[in-house]
UniProtKB/TrEMBL annotation:
GO terms for molecular function: glycosyltransferase activity. Residues 729-808 form the PELOTA RNA-binding domain. This is Phosphoribosyltransferase. It holds the Pfam family PELOTA_1. Residues 36-223 form the Orotate phosphoribosyltransferase-like domain. Keywords: Glycosyltransferase, Transferase. Signal peptide: none annotated. The keyword Ribonucleoprotein does not apply. Residues 275-411 form the TRSP domain. Residues 452-702 form the Cysteine protease StiP N-terminal domain.
Length: 825
């Protein structure tokens, strides 16, 4: 970026005009909106455009007093809205990575409010108090890691802070997840800009009514982004065209000549003060930081070169607040023009044009050993911006050899800026509370015939037996409690209805038609596991849908290879993770690297993500490494995993029934009054349904085909092993499209695939079924269930699944079936 280009940028050219002219994107709203926002193009398949804030201090260097001032002003508005007494009980939650500094500044404006921000960095020894997904982001998983778990447990207002409020999905997902665990009566959503479409504008009020809480919105400005048809494809084309024209400062430029240009400056950071809000930041922390800021700024000023006129303080990803406050103090201390911005994970196209928000891009490797593996990181609008010095501020966890390497951040900066200072803030390590001693020995797995109708050598259940506890509730009552936030789905069980004679006939017909196909898929996925994962794997099924598949895989390994593989079943609960005590038992008895998690099929991939997040948490809390989050499944219609037997969406007959095809075991239960911190999750054994049990018959019907399909399995496995099986997450994208098309706010109410649709019909309150046009016998049982429950079946062209089940999004007691009651099958 040249001095002339910067002058042009200051001369009134809107930094969104380049994108607007080429894509037809319109930014409409308050008069000051274009002053707050520019536009750029994402290198992200989920969204073409990026709203680039001029006052956030992320992508665009800005005066630190302006950045902090915008957040403080929003916090004062929240304080005025709540009133002094209520504001004194508020807790502020900011979003990683972009809004960590903004959220902290809002907390400053509120006064004494404690602050916490979500993080994508697991921390050893700190268990998560919650987590959620950000569906449109390039990196979606957020963890909440407060040092004091009680931080989120109060009854005061929760103030959620993000840089922009676009669709509302992220906020709704967060509130839903937190309200389930820590219900409260009031929430305030804060953002610099409210950019919701008219269609999204009413969702916040609807959601507030749904959970029975008040939800207010406070923003600095509002408007909408109008996107013409085909904007995503046009955006991709533009990115592809301009990516070949490397802007100044992009990857590959510079890297040499850093010697002598990089120096450290010791800050004298106050002991015991956290580097940010990752684990919580209190009013007492704020007071100590305020006292120390002038001295730290003076040390930085003393290390700057004489005559430095323009200085950038560059923060690091989630570490936004500490560098922001240092920059603000430096702005008051020195006569130089001080600007502030931070590095980021977000990949954005750079175009050196005054009408484009991202003029230059520095690219460098991640340098904090991220849990999701190595990758590129970026610093925007730094190269060519005329800075005489850059003060790079990182936490000590990121002060690694990768930071100092020839292609690292410091070398990239030194190639474009005459003087680089490195200031390191000590990474805050939470105090580990005294934990009560765990029992020296967890119980041995439960086995049949005492628990389940499976033979004792087929599977060991890492569960506790809750057979004598009454846990069942009518379907409509469960749905009302689940959707209102009054109960988690794993705290009760649906009533185990006996299937009708007509439905049992349909099951047998489906099994006869598909048993050979199932045998081929079982054989193929087992061969892939043996070839790629371990020659003697430990099969660990996700109870309960995964259990029959795990048994069938174990039978194939014995039939084809003479292997007698260990096989266990464990509980995983959406929103609560995998049973950590089961993982501890497995780690004590087997090499975690040999463990292969098994499930029946994928839908949109929620459990795939849940398992990956849960294993990261377990590694952080217990220090046990080696568990592989890659699930092996019979069928992967959602394209969520790379270890599967087929990606076809067809009827797996075990999905047709509940416990009577799963060893007479219920789905798993996790309820605080029944499952203690040292217990396995629970389940029930329905001995009274033994007369209707089809579990052994299902297994035998499939495994009896093994001798006949050996050659076909060999060919299928060989083809899969040679194929590109990289997950495309097509299913998740389809669910998001369906959610938007049918006005469903919660993607968890959309259940794609034959298996998941069947579960909706058996256990939940169905709204409608979407069926792919021309789907045949695989849907006979779904059509029968839909007829019995008075649920419409809509044929849809181009559906990537055979069918999709929609849970009723606005539950009422009259929404269960034609007669308002759950149907007895």
């Amino acid at each position: 970026m040249t001095e002339r280009a910067r002058a042009e940028g200051r001369a009134g050219v809107w930094s969104g005009s380049w994108v607007a002219e080429r894509l037809g994107v319109e930014l409409a709203g308050d008069d000051g909106l274009t002053g707050l926002l520019g536009l750029a193009l994402r290198r992200n398949p989920k969204r073409a455009h990026l709203l680039v804030s001029n006052v956030l201090g992320k992508h665009v260097p800005q005066s630190p007093s302006v950045v902090h001032g915008h957040g403080v002003a929003l916090g004062r508005r929240v304080r005025d809205l709540l009133g002094a007494e209520t504001a004194g009980r508020a807790v502020v939650l900011g979003y990683a990575e972009t809004a960590t500094g903004l959220g902290h500044s809002v907390a400053d404006g509120l006064g004494a409010a404690p602050y916490l921000h979500s993080t994508r960095r697991p921390v050893a020894g700190v268990g998560p108090a919650g987590g959620f997904e950000e569906s449109h982001s390039h990196a979606t998983s957020h963890l909440l890691l407060p040092e004091d778990p009680a931080l989120l447990a109060g009854d005061g207002p929760l103030v959620l802070v993000d840089d922009e409020f676009s669709t509302g999905n992220t906020v709704l997902n967060t509130v839903r997840a937190l309200h389930e665990r820590y219900p409260r009566k009031r929430y305030v959503v804060v953002a610099l800009v409210d950019m919701r479409s008219p269609a999204d504008a009413g969702r916040l009020a609807d959601f507030a009514r749904e959970i029975g809480a008040r939800v207010d919105l406070v923003t600095a400005a509002s408007g909408t982004v109008r996107l013409p048809p085909g904007v995503l494809e046009k955006g991709r084309e533009l990115v592809a065209r301009y990516e070949g024209e490397r802007p100044p400062g992009d990857a590959g430029s510079g890297g040499g000549g850093a010697a002598g240009r990089v120096a450290r400056v010791e800050l004298g950071w106050p002991g015991g003060v956290p580097d940010g809000g990752r684990h919580g930041f209190t009013a007492a922390h704020r007071d100590r930081l305020e006292d120390a800021l002038p001295g730290m700024a003076a040390r930085i000023a003393g290390a700057l070169p004489a005559g430095a006129r323009r200085v950038l303080v560059l923060g690091f990803e989630e570490l936004m607040y500490a560098p922001l406050r240092l920059a603000e103090a430096l702005e008051r201390t020195t006569g130089a023009e001080v600007r502030y911005s931070t590095t980021t994970r977000s990949p954005v196209l750079a175009v050196d044009d005054p009408g484009y928000a991202i003029r230059t891009r520095l690219v460098f490797p991640a340098h904090d050993d991220p849990s999701d593996g190595p990758g590129e990181r970026y610093a925007y609008n730094v190269a060519g911006a005329g800075f005489d010095a850059v003060v790079a501020v990182v936490d000590s966890a990121a002060d690694t050899p990768a930071l100092h390497a020839g292609d690292g951040l410091l070398a990239r900066l030194a190639a474009h800026v005459p003087h680089v200072l490195l200031a390191v803030v000590p990474s805050y390590v939470p105090r580990t509370p005294h934990a009560p001693e765990r029992p020296s020995m967890l119980p041995e797995p439960l086995r049949g015939p005492d628990f389940s109708s499976y033979a004792s050598d087929e599977v060991g259940w890492l569960l506790q037996d809750l057979s004598e506890v009454t846990l069942e509730a009518p379907t409509e009552e469960r749905e009302e409690a689940i959707q209102s936030g009054g109960a988690h789905y794993a705290e009760s069980l649906p009533v185990e209805y006996q299937p009708s004679e007509q439905y049992q006939e349909l099951f047998h017909a489906a099994l006869d038609a598909s048993a050979a196909r199932l045998a081929r898929a079982v054989g193929a996925v087992t061969e892939i596991v043996l070839a790629e994962r371990s020659p003697r794997p430990v099969l660990v099924s996700l109870a309960r849908a995964g259990t029959p598949v795990g048994i069938l895989m174990r039978r194939w390994a014995r039939h084809r290879h003479g292997l007698d593989l260990p096989h266990y079943a464990v509980s995983i609960v959406r929103g609560r993770g995998i049973d950590a005590n089961a993982l501890r038992w497995l780690a004590a008895h087997h090499d975690p690297a040999d463990v292969v998690f098994v499930d029946g099929w994928t839908g949109k991939g929620a459990i795939t993500r849940e398992l990956a997040a849960a294993l990261r948490d377990f590694e952080a809390t217990d220090g046990v490494t080696g568990f592989d989050p890659e699930i092996a499944v019979l069928a992967d219609p959602g394209s969520c995993v790379r270890t599967y037997g087929t990606r076809d969406d067809f009827l797996i007959p075990s999905a047709c029934l509940n416990s009577t095809v799963s060893g007479l075991i219920s789905r798993t239960v996790l309820r605080a009054d029944l499952v203690g911190p040292h217990d396995f999750h629970g389940a029930k054994f329905y001995r009274d349904l033994a007369g209707a049990d089809l579990s052994p018959a299902f297994l035998d019907a499939v495994s009896d085909h093994y001798p006949d399909v050996v050659d076909e399995v060999h060919a299928q496995a060989k083809e899969l092993l040679a194929a590109d099986r990289t997950p495309t997450w097509e299913g998740w994208a389809a669910v998001e499209r369906i959610s938007a098309q049918y006005g469903i706010d919660d993607v968890n109410l959309v259940k794609p695939g034959v298996g998941e649709t069947t579960r909706v019909m058996l256990r939940r309150v169905p709204w409608k079924v979407l069926a792919r046009a021309g789907a045949g016998a695989d849907l006979d049982h779904v059509r029968l269930l839909a007829e019995q429950r008075g649920v419409p079946v809509e044929e849809v062209e181009g559906l990537p699944y055979t069918c999709v089940g929609l849970i009723h999004p606005q539950y009422t007691r009259g929404a269960t079936g034609a007669d308002g009651r759950a149907v007895a099958l």
